[in-house]
Amino acid sequence: MIAAWVVGDPGSHVWGAAAVWHTALAGYLAVLLRARGRVPCGCLDGVSPVSPLKIVIGGLWAAASAMMAAGTVSLPEDVVVRLTHLAVAGFVTLLAVVAASVSSVSPRRRIR
To answer: Bridge-partner residues for 40, per DSSP?
Structure first.
């Protein structure tokens, strides 16, 4: 998807496949959370637990991919604008990863 964003629109079939993949991932995470609770899912990494937030993020990615497949939203024409969007998305992703890592630290530990 990153390559498609840099190079240009790959077509609705690629976005449709991405929508199906993200829907399947969100569904898997929902079933796993309901069946086993907040356990590591193993699909994203081996240690972070499944959470409702991850399910929501998967659903948002599925909706965004479906909108791209339907042609509701299109890629910007200018490659510089697409690269700027990609840089901002990378930065936001980095912030989300750091926030998730910080939130997983137990507040019960005391430093003496």
So the answer is: 49
Number of H helices, E strands in the chain: 4, 0
Residue for token pair 């929902």? 30
Q: Which residue has the tokens 């199906």?
A: 20
Burial track 16-55 (b if 16+ CB lie within 10 A, e otherwise)? eebbeebbebbeebbebbeeeeeeebeeeeeeeebbeebb
- Listed residue (56, 17, 60, 24) closest to 43, CA to CA: 24
pLDDT above 80 (res 28): yes
This prediction's pTM:
0.67
Which residues 6+ apart lie within 8 Å of 109 measured at CB?
A: none
Structure tokens at 23: 């829907």
What is the residue type of 89?
Answer: A
Cβ contact 29:50 at 8 Å = yes
- For residue 48, report the phi and psi dihedrals to the nearest 5 degrees: -80, 135
73 vs 88: CA distance, rounded Å: 18
